[in-house]
Amino acid sequence: LCMSSFTSWIESSHVTSPTSLLPSGVDVPSSSESSLFSLFSDPDPDDTFTYTYDNDGVCININLKGYKQELGQTLNSTGLTLWRASEYLNAYLLKELPKRRKDFSKDSVAVELGAGLGLCSVLLSKLFPGRTYATDGDSDVLSMLQENVSKNACVGCEVRQVRWGVDAMEGVQADLVTASDVIYTEQIVKPLFEAVGGIMRRPAGEFWLAFARRNVEFGKVLEEAER
C-alpha cells in the first residue's frame, strides 16, 4: 500500500454503534445545553476500567476513568467510553512490539489518533521505546485523556488535540501511527488518511488500524489507503 511500507489491519465485527456517531478523532462542539449525554439517563455514569497485561513476565496495570460502556450509544462523543476494537489493538501491540525492538529506538515516535480514554496510548507508552503522543480531536475527551495518561505514569507521552483536516502536528514525524475504531461513516475515511499521511515518516512509517465493521465497507478503507 502506498500509505506506508507496512500497514496492519485488525478487523472486528463485534462492535455496534449508531450511524449518527462521529469518531473521537473529530471535534464535537460542547455546550452546557447539549452536554456529553443526558445526565438524567444515569445518576452515576462514571466508571473505572482496569486492565492487566503480561509483557514477558512484567505486569502492566492500566486504570482508566470514563463513562459506562452501556451509555456509549447515548454519548455525544464516542471517546468517553471504551470500545472493543481498542482491546484488539492492544493485543496486537503486546504481540508485535516486543518482536520489533530492532525496528524502533529511543528516537522513534509513535502517535495514536482518536485516542479517546487512552487505553491504547497508555499501553503504547509502556511498550514503545521512543516518544509517544496520545491525540484526540474532541475537546471534552482531552481532559479525561490527560488525566488517564497522567495517573498511569506514562513517561514520554504527550497529549495533544488533533482534529483531522484542521490541526497539523508541526515537527512530528511518526515512525508508528495507530488508531482503533475511529471509522463510523465514509465521510471520515479521507480525513483520517490525510491525517496519517501528514504525520507519518516516509518511506518507512507504519500505520496500524483496528477496524470495526460498522456502516463502512472495508474495501472503501483500503481504497483510500491506496491513494
What does this protein structure show overall?
- With 227 residues, this protein is α/β, with parallel strands linked by helices.
- 24% of the residues lie in helices and 24% in strands.
- It is built from five helices and eight strands; from the N terminus they run E-E-E-H-E-H-E-H-E-E-H-E-H.
- It has helices at 84-96, 119-127, 139-151, 189-199, 218-225, and strands at 6-12, 46-55, 58-67, 109-112, 131-136, 157-161, 176-180, 206-212.
- The strands form two sheets. The protein has a six-stranded parallel sheet with strand order 1-8-7-4-5-6, with helices on one face.
- Strand 5 (131-136), helix 3 and strand 6 form a beta-alpha-beta unit.
- The N and C termini lie close together (8 Å).
- Mean pLDDT is 81; it is low at 1-7 and 11-40.
Summarize the structure.
The chain is an alpha/beta fold and 227 residues long. It has helices at residues 84-96, 119-127, 139-151, 189-199, 218-225, and strands at 6-12, 46-55, 58-67, 109-112, 131-136, 157-161, 176-180, 206-212.
The spatial strand order of the largest sheet comes to: 1-8-7-4-5-6
Largest sheet: 6 strands, parallel
Oligomer: single chain
Distance between the termini: 8 Å
Secondary structure: number of strands: 8
Shape: globular
Topology as H/E string?
EEEHEHEHEEHEH
Give the helix tally: 5
The averaged pLDDT comes out at: 81
Strand content: 15-25%
Task: Report helical residue fraction.
Answer: 10-25%
Rg (CA only): 16 Å
Low-confidence stretches: 1-7, 11-40
Derived structural class: alpha/beta
